[in-house]
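Record type: monomer structure entry
Structure origin: computed from sequence
Chain ID: A
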Amino acid sequence: MGATNCPETPRQRMIAMMYLVLTALLALNVSKEVVQAFVLVEQGLSTTIENVNDKNQGLYDIFLERELHEEIKVRPWREKADLVKEKAEELRTYIDTLKKDIIIRADGLEAPALGDNGELYVDSIQKADNLEAGGIVMIGPSYDGKAYELKQKLIEFRSFLLSDMVDASSTSLINSLQATLNTDDPPKNLKDGDVQKTWEIARFDQLPMIACITMLSKIQSDVSNAESDVINHLFAQVDAKEIKVNKIDAVVRSRKGVVFTGDEYKAEVFLAAFDTTQQPTVYVGKYDSLETSDGEVDYFMVGNLGKDYDTLHVENGRGFYEVRAGSVNPAVSWGGLIEIATPGGAKKRYPFESEYQVSEATLVVSPTKMNVFYQGVLNPVDVSVPGVTKDKLTVSMKNGKITRNAKDNNWIVEPSQIDFLGNKTEIIVSADIDGEQKSIGSVKFRVKRVPDPVAKVFNLKGGEIQKNVLLAQAGVFAEIEDFDFEMPFVVTSFQVSAKPGGSDYWVKGDSKDNRFTEEQKGIIRNLRRGDKLIIDDIKAKGPSDNIPRNLAPIIFRIN
C-alpha cells in the first residue's frame, strides 16, 4: 500500500530511523571469526611469498653457477636478473613499511605485532577489526594516502619489467604480467549505485585493518610471482640467440699441415657444432670486415663470386676444399668465410684461415666424440702417425689412464680428475721408427664433468600445455641434450606446486621417484585454464658418479 494512502506516523518514522542506525552499527561490527579468517589468510600469503622468494633465489644461484663456466654468455642475463631482484625487493620492503604504518596507527608505536628486527606478527595485532587505520594511512583524509603512491610504484615496476626485461615477442608473458600487476580501476557495480570506484578505494577504503594488511600481502605475492616469471624468461634467453645445432664433432687444427722430423708440433683441439637440417655456405678467398653500430664485427667477401672467390661443396655441415699441389711450398695459406642463418633468419659469417705443407710424420690426435674428455665416461680417441702403423705407437696420458680398444685398434681414455683449463691432462705419443723410440708429441685436453640433464614432461621443458595431456604423462624424465654419449639419468624426486582455480594458496605434492603420485595428479585435475603448475626441487642421478643433480624447474601454464 502506497505511502500516500497510508502515511507514516512519527512513531513509525522513529522505528525506521532506529533500524537504519542498527543496520549501520551491524555493518561496523566485524566479528572475531572474520578477523581470525583474515589472520589465517595473511599467514598463508606470507608463507607463499617466502616459498616463491626461495624458488627465485634458487634460480639466482643457478645463474651464478653457470656464470662461473660461461661468463661472457651468462653475465648480461644474470645482471638483468639481479636488477629485477633489486626492484622487486625494494617494492616488497616498501609495502612492509605500509603494513607497519597501519599497525602503528591502530595499536600505537609499541604495538606487540612489531618485532624488534622488523618482523610482523599478525596474530598479535590488538585492533585487527579497526575500520579507520587502513583508510587513514592508505586513502588519507584528502585522498592523498599511501595507496596512491603504491599504485604508482606498481605501475613503474610493471613498466620496468615490460620495457626493459621482456621482448615484445613474448606475448604470453606480457599478458601474464599485465594481469598480475593490474592497477586498473574496477568496473562499475550496479549494486553500489553505479559508482565508479578507483583501484585505491576498492582495495583499502572502509576495510578492517587486518583486511588492509592481507591485501598488501597479496600485492607482495603478485610482485614475487611476476619476478619469478621474468627471471625464468631471462634464464631461457641465455641460449636463445645461439645458433641451433644438432651435431657435435671434435676437431684438431694445427698451424701447419705437416712438420719436419724433430720440429715442434702444435695443435688446437676444439668442439665443432653444426645443424644437419641446413647447410652453411663456405666461401674461399679474400675477405674483409667492418664494425657495425652495435659494436659487432661483420665479415664480407671481397670481389666477385666465381672470379675473386668461390664456394665449396658442402655435406653434413662440412665444406670440402680440394686443390692440386704445385711446387714445394713450406706454407700455403688459404681461408674464407662460413655463412649460416640464425633462428631469426639473419646471416652470420665466421672467418677461417689455414695453411698446409708436405713433409714427414706428423702427429694427429682426433677424439672420436669431442674435444674434451668427460669424467666417468669411456672417451674413445683415435691416435695416428702418418707412415707409422698403430702397433708401433706407444700412447700414455697424464691425469687418467688410456687403454687400447681391441675392437677398432684405437684407444679409450678414462680421466681421473676434473681439469677445466686443461693444465694437467695430456696424451703423449711416441713411435718405434726404425727400431728407435722417438717422441712424436703431446696434446693437452680439458676434463669436464658430464653436463646436467634437462628435466622434461612430455618432452617439454615448460610453456603451455593442455591439462588432459599433462594428466596422461607418467612423470618427469631427464636427458642430456645434444650430447653424443649415452648417459641415462634417473629422476629420484620432485615437487609439484600450484594455485588451483586462481586461489591465493599454494598446494604442493612430493614424489620420491620420477612418477606423478596420485596426490600430484589430484592437484593437476583441479587446475583451470590459465593456472600455473610448477615442478621444481627436481633431483636426478647419473650412472657414472651417482651424485644427485639439482635440475632447473619446469613451469607449465594450462591452456
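Annotation 1: The radius of gyration is 34 Å.
Annotation 2: Residues 1-9, 18-28, 256-261, 358-362 have pLDDT under 50 and may be disordered.
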